[in-house]
Amino acid sequence: xxxxxxxxxxxxxxxxxxxxxxxxxxxxxxxxxxxxxxxxxxxxxxxxxxxxxxxxxxxxxxxxxxxxxxxxxxxxxxxxxxxxxxxxxxxxxxxxxxxxxxxxxxxxxxxxxxxxxxxxxxxxxxxxxxxxxxxxxxxxxxxxxxxxxxxxxxxxxxxxxxxxxxxxxxxxxxxxxxxxxxxxxxxxxxxxxxxxxxxxxxxxxxxxxxxxxxxxxxxxxxxxxxxxxxxxxxxxxxxxxxxxxxxxxxxxxxxxxxxxxxxxxxxxxxxxxxxxxxxxxxxxxxxxxxxxxxxxxxxxxxxxxxxxxxxxxxxxxxxxxxxxxxxxxxxxxxxxxxxxxxxxxxxxxxxxxxxxxxxxxxxxxxxxxxxxxxxxxxxxxxxxxxxxxxxxxxxxxxxxxxxxxxxxxxxxxxxxxxxxxxxxxxxxxxxxxxxx
Amino acid sequence: xxxxxxxxxxxxxxxxxxxxxxxxxxxxxxxxxxxxxxxxxxxxxxxxxxxxxxxxxxxxxxxxxxxxxxxxxxxxxxxxxxxxxxxxxxxxxxxxxxxxxxxxxxxxxxxxxxxxxxxxxxxxxxxxxxxxxxxxxxxxxxxxxxxxxxxxxxxxxxxxxxxxxxxxxxxxxxxxxxxxxxxxxxxxxxxxxxxxxxxxxxxxxxxxxxxxxxxxxxxxxxxxxxxxxxxxxxxxxxxxxxxxxxxxxxxxxxxxxxxxxxxxxxxxxxxxxxxxxxxxxxxxxxxxxx
Amino acid sequence: xxxxxxxxxxxxxxxxxxxxxxxxxxxxxxxxxxxxxxxxxxxxxxxxxxxxxxxxxxxxxxxxxxxxxxxxxxxxxxxxxxxxxxxxxxxxxxxxxxxxxxxxxxxxxxxxxxxxxxxxxxxxxxxxxxxxxxxxxxxxxxxxxxxxxxxxxxxxxxxxxxxxxxxxxxxxxxxxxxxxxxxxxxxxxxxxxxxxxxxxxxxxxxxxxxxxxxxxxxxxxxxxxxxxxxxxxxxxx
Lengths: 436, 290, 237
Hints:
The complex is a heterotrimer. By secondary structure, chain B is of the alpha/beta class. Chain B has 11 helices and 10 strands. Chain C starts with 10 loop residues before the first helix and ends with a helix. Chains in contact: A-B, B-C. The A-B interface holds A 249, 317, 319-330, 333, 337-338, 342, 434-436 and B 89, 91, 94, 96, 119-123, 126-129, 131, 133-136, 145-146, 149-150, 183, 185, 196, 199-200, 202-203.
């Protein structure tokens, strides 16, 4: 029997099963598959949206600052007791007292020492700075009365932004009932105003939340990243070109390649420790300086850029190399004239993404002392500085209620920075991309 | 009288009678056609073998490429014809673990001489590839690149002249003269391939190697390239690898048939396509199992 | 259903070529028969048979046209190379030669009709011998074509000499007869033309032999064909 079956060469005619049920099942499977994808994307978008909304809701108010409008009598007795009107003398004046007097004139019935202190708490201790700047710019103002808005203290700011719950018992909230009463009166008089918080972007860190800004950290981040790019981009592109185009393929290059790939996976804290031990300990470079931070971060971005560059070089079609060799170009000419320009968008994208990663890095720079409380904005790469993620970390750690919104605002600034860099990556890729 | 003459003629004929023998079934026998009087061989290969690692891809090839003629290399896929072509301008150097043995000479000069500059060699032996591969640059820069890196022009006017002459020779000038600044990749496939030929011509090579230059083109574009090859034959020695036997028959004067890494037979194209000597050539050309 | 070694990868190409050689073989057979019957009609003085031969020549012409069409189609569609190309080209040429052989046979038959009205001639006796020889050459050459036997073709090619010699002797014999009695001139001229036709048939057969040799070896039988026809010389004498 089996022989007979084997002998018949005519195979049974098989036709595709075109029944409706089968086709329906196929389409159903396809729809399910698409649904899984959409669910995954939906989940990611939801999480991201949730995060963004939380941050924005908490932080948007930090971009506005509450100020108190007062009629300030610039009393010569307080600011220029010697009556010389010299800049040195004006520099010494007690401008805070002038502002305090102006506030007290709003509340003539507040007389006791304790009450007066509570009233003084309405003002930031930098409230007088504005008057001082005005007077130094125009000494003729001394002795006149000026209608100015001065910086309110962080608690007043919080109250104005509705972040202090009036229903909470008096003992559990930072402001007393009578202070809230004074605030309401000032508000009724139209003396509580809100303006865009320029200081947030221009000032350095401060113990007082209303005076704290990301200016110092932004500058620190900028200098650090600049150092990192200047160091890592040429080194890693050169290394990648050599490895990809010129190096012989043998054990040594294999080992180097494996090490580079491993380097990309090393935890950043290890790079920080390395920087601490070698750069600070052995070479004695300044602590907390963007120079050192940049060096450590460049170590971190190096493998990323090398890997991206090699991938970009590999993606250049061999036909272009052959064409160049065919007209008698040398190896170096082939690489410099043809391969590298074509790989440029890939290299730039890799570099920007690597840099963005370094930008968000905190652990490594913590180790080399960029975590210190620094009020001054760094002016060079050797000045002590801090970076944005570390600043966010520091604020998140601070006890004052007002630092919560600053933290979120800091995160928003940093995210904006990263979005900007990634957008730059897209633009650069579009610009350099060529068809072949 | 007449009969006697016939008799002697017949016997003489019997003496020279031989069945159509194969010349190259034994690889140790040098081809009898190697040295043909009056035709100086431009490139001479002797006992050329190519190894990719342990695998031998080409076995003792002896081939003379005559000057200012078109030599076609035909054979089934993987027969070693492209490998051989790439030996001729040392393009195989670029590939790792590729080893070439034997001698290849260009005008009597050994091209595998370690003292010879491979870059200069490739300027003398141009190459056109299977897929049109213009640089992603302007048409002008595509042509001007070779002359620039070889310092062939001393000023812009000279370079313009080279570009125009090369494009004219490639029969592309009239089609592109108004858009030299546009990218070469924007041309049609056939135009791109002629651009690549113009690029090869621009460095004034002596030999042009073509690796299946028409395999990606339509018949009209192919015909243009074939016509171009025929014109270029006046000034250049051309070696073309092709899968199309009709094309080999149309454009070449000499044809070499490769099979399994061995040069089976080579000779005048007319002879190869009307009366090949070897069974394998016959089988391949007529589309039979061999 | 597998291809045998030596077959084309495209099987229908093999079928075409096979069909082509079959048509040639059929033409050859018809031409042979035409010659045989024409000579028979001459010997038996049978004008009906001769008329039949004249009629049948149309079939050979039709076959030649068919070969022409087939070869053109194959050249256009198959683009034959090497051996195949030679086969197709050979088919065209052989068909034309056989067609000419058929025409000569027709010519003999026509003259046989005329001769049947005259008194029998003695020299007519050597015509069948001559035609026998020519027939043998045609047969050998066609066999060589079918078998792709170059040596067979070559041997047949050499034998044409004998036909030529026979023609020469017949020519002299005719001259004698005509000189003997001027009344013989009419029939003798017809016989002479018949002999010349058979001689031409032999030439066409050698043409076919040369084509077969080229078909097999790809080069021509380049030695000069043995010429037995010395009648020109004789006349000059």
